[in-house]
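Translate sequence into structure tokens.
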Amino acid sequence: MRIKQQAFLLLAISCVAFACKKSSVKPQSTDPKVLANWSSSAQYASWDAGSGYTIENNIWGSGAGFQSIWANTYSNWGVWSDQPNTSGVKSYPNSDYGVHQTFSGLHTVQSSFNVTVPSSGAAAESTYDIWCNNYAYEIMIWENWTGSVNPIAVGYNGNGTPIATYTNVTPTAGGPTYTVYVGSNGTNAVYSFLNNSQTSSGTVNIKDILNYIQSKGITFTTLNKVQFGFEITSSNGGLNFDCNSYSATVN
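Result follows.
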């Protein structure tokens, strides 16, 4: 009887030890922000993501708050941004694709994107920022936006609402229709194409948009870069802005 009791006691102790050892192993998180290849909260942090892309935190606006950025690839990245409820853009975290080619030699300039962004509680837009002629021209393509944000325009009405330069513009046959605003930020000309049907994913024929601008008397000599990201004015308390996928094709 004593031998059986001792054997049972040893078995119980072994089971407890095994259970303790097993419970000490923490499960692996599948959250992409936890598994990220790179992250930073530095104001102008950047990461060479390869294939010509650079991920940038880019907290550039006056009175900006905290923002942290993570990235797995140039295509899959995001930020947690806590910006105060004040006017003015605070940051433009983005995936930057450097081109630096003569515009006339380009046959295709196209991009696809997919994002998850706040539907409320923020003032921000998911937007392309395309630079031409050694940064003399900035072309923004707003795909979705929320809160009190407005494009730069050449004129504003009595309520401070920007006045569109062109309406119902469809640069690509069968593609999105845009409202277009033209203005200047004091340093360079800004063309803002606002998608009339806001979307969190899609494919954009950027070459057609640039050709449309050229039809209005502008000549593009160089395409410097194609950026895609989130222009954030406010996100008080902290919100996530995630780029699930993004790519640019230029040839």
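Note: The CA atoms of residues 92 and 231 lie 4 Å apart.
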